[in-house]
Amino acid sequence: MPNVPVSFDTSWISPLTERLHEDGPWDKWELFKLALEAEEAMAVREFDSLQCLNYLPLLSPFPHQLQTAERVLNDMRGRAILADEVGLGKTIEAGLIMKEYMVRGLAKKILVLVPASLVIQWTKELQQKFGIPAVAQKKEYMWRQHEVVVASIDTAKRDPHRRHVLDIDYDMLIIDEAHKLKNKRTRNYQFVKEIRKKYCLLLTATPIQNEMDELYNLINLLKPGHLGHSTSFSTNYVEGKRQSKNSEKLREEIEKVMIRNKRSDGGIQFTSRRVQSIPIELTQEEMELYEGVTRFVHDQYKTGTGLFNSLALITLQREVCSSKEASFMTLYNMHQRTSEESLLRAQILELVEMIKRIETHSKAAKTVELIQQINDKVIVFTEYRATQNYLQKYLHDHGITSVPFRGGFKRSKKDWMTDLFQNRAQVLIATEAGGEGINLQFCNQVINYDMPWNPMRVEQRIGRVHRLGQKRDVHIYNLSTVGTIEEHILKLLYEKIDLFEMVIGELDDIVERLNLSSSLEENLTQIIMDSASTREMALKLDNMGHAIRASRQPHAAPALSEAAEQ
Amino acid sequence: MQANQVRQFVERYLATFSAHIVESHPDYLTVKLPVEVDKDIGNRPFYWSWVDKMNLAYQPLVLTFAFHPDRMPDGLRAEHLHLGAGRMQQIFASAKKHGQFVCMYEQNTASLPATGKRRSTPLVPWLGINLKVSFLCDKRRDLMLYLGVNLHQPRVVHDFSTYLFQLPLSPAIPDYFYTLDRKISVEDALQMARQEAEAVIAKEDQAWAAEAKARLAEELDILAAYYEELAKREPQAEQADADDEEAEKAEEPQAAQAIVPLPQTEAPPVAEPVVEAAQTIDEYRSSGGRILDFLRANGIQVTPREEINQEEWKKSTPEEEKQRRMDELRWQYEPRIEVHFINGGLFYLHSNPPVQKLSGAKTVRHLPANGRIM
């Protein structure tokens, strides 16, 4: 072949000549045949078709994931931005591409840079789903010692790690949450630019958050100059910060380096969500306790003795809606903190006495009824440890098997509990959404025993079961005690924001745009504590709901995102 | 490789080492690993160096291989064996290690002259070479070449191994046969095989290489234009905006460091890694070294605290950046061909391998081409 260098392996000549000379030792004929068969099994017969699935018998990727992998391989030649919408499996696509290059012997040394919180998850996923021996970077020597390293970008860019990373030629570089690199002036951006790499994948669900420049910067990281110099890019394509011109041409250029699968493209069917509110009437005694606690909480907040901060108070207020056990623990702790002669002690003890008098537990009773009615696997979410323990005992007393699940469990224990739930128990009682990589799709019934106030956490709870791979419709039951703040909050989340009806991923968008995630809980606390009456509280919550609703309205979508969306 | 192929492969592999099969169930296989197999696929090098050194009786490893992930054995620690499994790759590597060179004789008793006449029959020496030709650019394709070189009457045939697999072969020379002399050396045979391989390569479709080259040229052009424009528009490079502390702080609350090229003395180079040390631990051990010394010599020292320097940060100049990007592109696209040796051996044959079909056109050319027509 003209001008293509051919290297011919001759390392075998001398060992063979030696054996000829000595007449041996010779290998076994059968092993000779097996060696050849092994080579045949692993030979890459074609340039273009995916080989990696032969090596991944347990993985069944979705068609859009396979198409993406093929396009990256054949059209984009291993340098691409994977910009699927949330929940369509960018990680699977990246894994497929990585595996393909490894199987073809084209990539060995691979670096995966992700946010610190995702390092372990990525490592596990590469190992378990793709059989890739990835390690999470912990020690300095690991940069050199291991072929596939997963690390946080903030560690990698710091000395002495940086010197190792910049000294190595990486066959492949993968960056998750790449939209964090949108600003070319940050050190993260410049650091990534300096890494020597052959193939490169940038993963992000939001290639453009605000300005067109962000996408330009991302592409320039992948292929400097692909869109020309930033000035000519501006002249050619940019009308205003969010407006593009020559959209058709721009779209073509972007398509060469970016793939964005969308839920609306079809092909990917999510099952539907069926949400039900289950109102619970409290008994007289329970209502008295609720009112007693509410009064106590408001008094303490107003007089502001400073003994209990507003967080502790609002927690107590919420706990009393969950279970008397949860509020009892908090009251007990408060009691311990007050001095012996304090008047508060008497008040607290009075509340405790009320708890002791209560025999019934309407919410738990309703839960048992619901579980028996469902007669299938159920996940019950609660915010409080005390409630979790109580529920487990309560369910047990009613002949329902359950296992607990907490954020504090070690990974192995989480896996074990998941396993027990799948094979032995009917109910999983969880205080957290389960954590990444925990697979609960075999269950399609979720009871929100009490509600987190952060909508992202509600979404995480549901997202555990309502995701790719869920084959049935997902049923969500929200318990709310009538006449308590719980009812109001649920109204806000459910009726005003339509939280449960949102498409997966949509919420991320709103929360990020309004910067709600940190402030929503604070706002709610303030509204509840500062409102003089229930009416006032209801009104304020209503207003808040309207504000969030308004921001959902599809505002004039910038033409560029449309161009990029294609 | 399908599940049943995997199973057959593993069974044949184990049989060549006379492994003791503890249980053979339709869905799985429990086996006591023989020493050689254990050393290759058992993942316990330290155990082996200890057993060997102390001269102890070894405890065989018992493994259960399952072939159907949905029918894993109950109550047994089993591993699912498939083409992509790490253990399968180890088994492949072990087969290759133990199946490199053979010397075999054809046992074709049928062609023996009638009994009574004790006349010896000659066997022709052949060199069989199995090669893997890899066409590489940003993609890759492999081509298997099974060549045979007649060492007595120099000529090359294709698909030699395929032919061999149909013959009765044995490692010992059968009675009433003798071997003919080798007229050419192994080096000469190699030359012939090499020429043959190159002829085959020349006849392959070359579109992939042309395409890769075009792609490379195009990307290099874009790059050149981009950096030219960059130099024109921003003669001072992008240094001016390189320290936008606002952006930095907004995104990295803790590690906010302005990116200013600091005129500092260069920090000492990072502790040089010795990972690519020629010796593996096994080689090192067998030459009498201590494990601890090996680890000391080959481990990577942690960079001492005083050498860590967060300030030292040099941004590449546009020229350096361009050069790096050009190197990356060449690394990614430049077409090249590698010919790897899989295994090979010496074969003494009584029968004659068929003269080639399509791919062996080259070989045919040596023969009187018009002979058949006449």
Automatic annotation (TrEMBL), chain A:
SUPFAM superfamilies: P-loop containing nucleoside triphosphate hydrolases. Pfam families: Helicase_C, SNF2-rel_dom. Residues 366-515 form the Helicase C-terminal domain. GO terms for molecular function: ATP binding; helicase activity; hydrolase activity. Residues 71-225 form the Helicase ATP-binding domain. InterPro entries: DEXDc_RapA, Helicase_ATP-bd, Helicase_C-like, P-loop_NTPase, SNF2-like_sf, SNF2/RAD54-like_C, SNF2_N. The keyword Nucleotide-binding applies. It comes from the Bacteria. The keyword Hydrolase applies. CDD domains: DEXDc_RapA, SF2_C_SNF. Keywords: ATP-binding, Helicase, Hydrolase, Nucleotide-binding. This is Putative ATP-dependent helicase YqhH.
Automatic annotation (TrEMBL), chain B:
Residues 240-249 have a biased composition (Acidic residues). Residues 234-254 are annotated as: Disordered. InterPro entries: YqhG. It comes from the Bacteria. This is Uncharacterized protein. The lineage of its organism: Bacteria, Bacillati, Bacillota, Bacilli, Bacillales.
